[in-house]
């Protein structure tokens, strides 16, 4: 294809997106669109998969059967979300194996929040309430993104995510209204998860390198700072209902703006964790890679069995 | 890395209730058809989304090429006479 022709195709492509048309896997697309989508969708899938690890820690320690079945169901959903997203990503011409390889080698990123430890049961509450809450704010606009398979996966994910947040908030509610020790445990979890949850919505607009292009492709509909403000404004009243204090002395309602002012985010911490120096980066990858490697003989055995059955069937036909 | 082959890709179709058609829900990897069905149940019908599942290995699907959409689909565009509104009838004619 000549340069002129590609430019022409690109212009047509951008116009289709501007008209709110969806792009489907076999449609022509600029290479940069394909690469950006592979990067974002796979990061999203990896986050779902790694996101199971901090919660897996508490399945055997859940305080009641009710909490245990809910946590198990939530973690199973996250595996499901990872699978929807990997499938969507594979439609762009990358294989599942390549995607896993990128995750396991550290080449691909996943959401930094999962590199924090889950040290008490209240962390299950705070994760559901805050981490899933921030994820919902990030994900809802993606239900209308331009790439069809991604948008369809996100519709399913968002439908299921609301249960995650409610089960988390219910855990917090129970603890906050429990004994003084339980309330203190809930407060401690809020203290530790609040700032990382704000960071989850991404670097400030001034620092965000992908925003402009992503807006054009509807991979993003609101900027990181707008999403963060929305998250804070809707979460503060929820903390009030719990009777817990958000660990930010600068947090104050701004009547003029009609939203909350908030304190400085420690972006050094954010970048440290992104670069692999968070409290649990190594542990998470070790658990993930270990599970993958220990499962290899099972995957191989299943394939060998399938091939044997297939051959037997072919023989019977002859 | 594994020396054996990777699990192939399967497309999953789910009938959400009797009376409706099976609809494409997504895809997954599985070693064989039986495992594809079991995985499809866990991945796509955790909340009563279906009463019947079809799985087909993706390589068996033949798809039209969007680059040929012109010759494939445009001929239908100028055949307005295939639609009832093409025919002009007096208003007095009822039940038609």
UniProtKB/TrEMBL annotation, chain A:
One Pfam family, short name: PaaA_PaaC
GO molecular function: phenylacetyl-CoA 1,2-epoxidase activity
GO BP field: phenylacetate catabolic process
Cellular component terms (Gene Ontology): cytosol
InterPro entries assigned to the protein according to its UniProt record, in alphabetical order: Aromatic_CoA_ox/epox, Ferritin-like, Ferritin-like_SF, PaaA, PaaA_PaaC
Name of the protein: 1,2-phenylacetyl-CoA epoxidase subunit A
Protein's organism: Xanthomarina gelatinilytica
From TrEMBL, chain B:
Organism of provenance: Xanthomarina gelatinilytica
InterPro entries, A to Z: PaaB (IPR009359), PaaB_sf (IPR038693)
Descriptive protein name: 1,2-phenylacetyl-CoA epoxidase subunit B
Pfam families: PaaB
Top-level taxon of origin: Bacteria
